[in-house]
Design a protein that fits this description.
The chain is an alpha/beta fold and 813 residues long. The protein is built from 45 helices and 10 strands.
Length: 813
């Protein structure tokens, strides 16, 4: 609908002419049904439609305001003969007998058309040409709101119009009410919070006219029944509104109308995948205020029953907590802990974090979840310390009666210790989890799972927390073990089956075990690496940005943060802020009680620092903690190459080969080793290493591995293309189309004069003393020292000497 011009005024208010396709009788359906709640502008639409038709045809239409007139016209057509009958102020419901009379009207000898208002969508009618309009068709667009404001000489910010067409769905009555407020107040709102006041005005209308005060005519209305039903549900979906006496198709059609009402926000429930309408908090509270305490209690019980019947796990906890049944809520959370870790709706988070400490401190699962939620909100683990300590105290009092119950207790202890940053305790408990799972020589829960499908299903659900913890303590192979359990004992009907698969695939992709899954991109947070296998940098960056948002959910997502840093280092090093590069490293150091950052974070930060050309800081970082994991050893190898120490780079690569056989680690290590061989003047060995890497991994993985070498080194490799097998030559040719942002000249070369000056500075010599020793002028020394500081990116002489020592300059004498 597009704006036209003012149709007229009422109380000095100019009405906007709503555009419509109805210009003549030919444009009008046999029966036009405007199925909308009052206040949605149905009467205005009908009046404007009537004016257009009368203007076009030159004939008068007929306007009915009661049922009696319809009955009299059917009995005596000549008494009110007209080409179009408009029926207003008659609220039809879907089972109203008046529908039959409307059909009878259209069958009068002069075949009139009928336009009628209804609370409900019409039932099936024996008429071929029926057009139905709902609230969505009557809503004002942003353009129309702007034009309506201009017609009435109102000047308001564009954000106001966006709010009216967004949050308030373009409801004509609310739009007019808000604009009249602005005009009365000469452009400023007389209310401190007009949005909330509009919500309360709307709820007053709904509560008094539709939800609580229920005239007899509306009792039979499906829309009214569903709306009242929705007022008992904090998050409503079509499935939750469907009752035994409701047709599913009808409920879904009416739910679309409820979603259009300015009552709440439209979301997709992460647990069920259903489309839901969640009430705005202030609107929900207002609805509850209009009910008596007994009615509110009954509404909460109805909500609990509906969510239990429809398997809405999260909302069951919401209603249990609202009813004060904290113990039952704890039981659900204990059994389904992973669901409550994986992005539950905000309303559930609010309900759990609102539980008073006096009640919460007795329930370990709720303590863990509440602590995690608070950590996500503040990005500060310390705020939740008391929750995790209390959870550990409660868990210590548990007396498991079976190996599986023992596993449940241990996994929750793992979460508590990890959340407290207690690395050694976390690793000790993860080893206990491995022991409980068992192996061929010591049978455990895995052997029981092979015989009992229920044990297998429950075991898969319990593996998420150990997997998560193993990634945080940098034990990738242990995480892979837990992933394999999640995979092999996976229940496809589980509510969090998608989350389990996503977690498993993420780690498998990171290590290079997952096969190419181009048709399933989006299921793994590390899909950016998969996209890099065929050189789509733009999409890889898009997928990385998605993960960058997810990593902000908690302070302990070290693998996610490391992955984002690494991808930005490869794809967009020029856009990285050098001042912020070490934020993740500092956060990780503060997270763990021993002050040691995550190895993944350390390795990724080193790579990112190297990518921006700060080889001095990169060396300092990698030497701050002896590399032990494949990722930090890989970072060390890259730093050694940047310093042109090919031998030391090869030593780091050999350590990677000895401790990790994951395909991705082998692919990156193979590319680095090939470059090191070239630096040591062994091109045959370089080609041989690339051939072996290709045989042991895949073409895509090797292509990604080659992204970690500098542009100059890759060009050197391409010089030996004729010595490669056809398969390797094809991989190198495809990799040649990739953009490389890393360059060999990450550190300006030090001349013999630079080294001589550095040695003098280390011995504490002044500029005058250096000039005398070297038989040059003092001005020459000053210039050389200034250029030396610039090369080393040092702020003073002492820092230059310190950097030189880290770079091993004095060791090379």
């Amino acid at each position: 609908m597009a704006p036209k011009h003012a149709m007229g005024t009422h109380s000095s208010w100019a009405l906007l002419e709503r555009a419509t396709e109805v210009r003549s009788l030919r444009d009008l359906a046999t029966i036009t049904v405007i199925a909308a709640l009052p206040s949605w502008g149905a009467t205005t639409w009908m009046r404007q439609c009537q004016a257009r038709i009368e203007s076009h045809t030159g004939t008068k239409t007929w306007w009915f305001t009661n049922r009696r007139g319809i009955e009299e016209t059917i009995a005596d057509p000549a008494s009110a003969s007209a080409p179009v009958y408009f029926i207003s102020k008659v609220e039809l419901t879907d089972d109203d007998p008046l529908w039959e009379q409307l059909v009878a009207l259209t069958q009068l000898p002069h075949r009139p058309r009928v336009v009628v208002r209804s609370l409900d969508l019409p039932p099936p009618l024996p008429v071929d040409d029926v057009h139905v309009m709902t609230e969505a068709d009557l809503a004002l667009s942003a353009v129309e709101v702007t034009c309506l404001a201009q017609l009435n000489e109102i000047d308001a910010p564009a954000t106001m119009y966006a709010s009216l067409t967004g949050r308030y769905r373009g409801n004509p009555a609310l739009v007019r009410r808000r604009l009249e407020m602005l005009r009365t107040a000469e452009g400023s709102s007389p209310w401190a919070d007009p949005d909330v006041r509009l919500d309360l005005h709307l709820v007053t209308e709904l509560a008094t006219r539709f939800i609580d005060v229920q005239p007899e005519r509306r009792d039979s209305s499906t829309m009214m029944q569903l709306l009242r039903r929705a007022s008992h549900l904090r998050r409503a979906s079509a499935e939750l509104l469907t009752g035994a006496h409701h047709d599913r198709t009808t409920v879904h059609a009416n739910f679309e109308r409820i979603r259009m009402l300015p009552l709440g926000t439209h979301e997709v429930d992460p647990e069920t995948g259903q489309s839901v309408m969640e009430w705005h908090p202030e609107v929900w509270e207002a609805v509850q205020r209009y009910r008596s305490p007994d009615a509110n209690l009954a509404a909460l019980r109805d909500g609990l029953a509906a969510t239990q019947a429809n398997d809405h796990l999260g909302m069951q906890v919401y209603y249990l907590l609202a009813l004060g049944q904290v113990g039952q809520a704890e039981s659900l959370i204990w059994k389904n802990l992973r669901f409550f870790l994986l992005s539950p709706p905000a309303v559930i988070i609010q309900a759990i974090t609102a539980v008073p400490w006096a009640q919460l401190r007795h329930f370990p699962a709720m303590l863990l979840i509440a602590g995690e939620y608070r950590s996500r909100q503040t990005l500060t683990p310390a705020v939740s310390e008391q929750f995790y300590l209390a959870a550990l105290s409660q868990l210590a009092m548990r007396r498991p009666r079976s190996p599986f119950e023992k596993l449940q207790v241990v996994t929750r202890q793992v979460m508590a210790h990890m959340s407290l940053g207690q690395r050694s305790d976390t690793m000790r408990l993860l080893a206990e989890v491995e022991e409980l799972l068992g192996d061929n020589s010591h049978p455990g829960l895995l052997s029981l799972a092979a015989k009992d499908a229920t044990v297998a299903e429950n075991l898969a659900a319990e593996m998420y927390i150990p997997f998560w913890a193993a990634t945080q303590v940098d034990d990738n192979m242990q995480a892979l073990l837990f992933t394999s359990v999640m995979r092999s004992h996976h229940n496809p009907n589980s509510r969090t089956a998608m989350a389990d698969s996503q977690a498993a695939l993420t780690h498998e992709v990171f290590l290079g075990y997952a096969p190419d899954h181009r048709d399933d991109l989006g299921s793994s947070f590390t899909d950016a690496l998969v996209v890099l296998e065929w050189g789509d940098d733009e999409r890889a960056l898009h997928l990385t940005e998605f993960l960058a948002e997810r990593r902000k959910q908690a302070p302990s997502r070290s693998v996610a943060e490391a992955f984002v840093l690494m991808m930005h280092a490869v794809l967009t090093p020029d856009s990285m802020d050098r001042r912020l590069l070490q934020d993740s490293l500092q956060r990780s150091s503060h997270y763990w009680a021993d002050g040691r950052p995550s190895a993944a974070i350390l390795g990724a930060t080193t790579m990112a620092t190297l990518a921006v050309g700060d080889v001095v800081t990169a060396l300092r970082l990698i030497r701050s903690r002896p590399p032990q994991e494949w990722f930090t050893l890989t970072a060390e190898a890259l730093v050694m190459l940047a310093l042109d120490r090919a031998g030391e780079a090869m030593e780091a690569v050999e350590q990677v080969d000895s401790i990790c056989t994951a395909p991705r680690s082998r692919a990156i290590a193979g590319a680095i080793a090939a470059v090191a061989h070239l630096r040591m003047d062994s091109p045959a060995a370089a080609v041989q290493r690339l051939e072996a890497t290709l045989r042991g991994t895949s073409a895509g993985l090797l292509r990604v591995g080659l992204r970690f070498v500098t542009a100059e080194d890759f060009d050197d490799l391409m010089n030996y293309l004729d010595q490669c097998s056809p398969e390797l030559a094809r991989v190198l040719s495809e990799a040649a189309t990739d953009t490389r942002h890393w360059h060999r000249a990450t550190l300006a070369p030090l001349t013999p004069v630079d080294r001589e000056n550095l040695k003098a500075l280390r011995n504490g010599a002044t500029n005058t003393e250096i000039a005398q020793q070297r038989f040059v002028s003092i001005n020459t020394v000053r210039t050389q020292i200034r250029l030396l500081l610039r090369k080393l990116k040092a702020s003073d002489r002492m820092q230059a000497v310190a950097y030189a020592e880290r770079l091993g300059v004095f060791e090379q004498e």
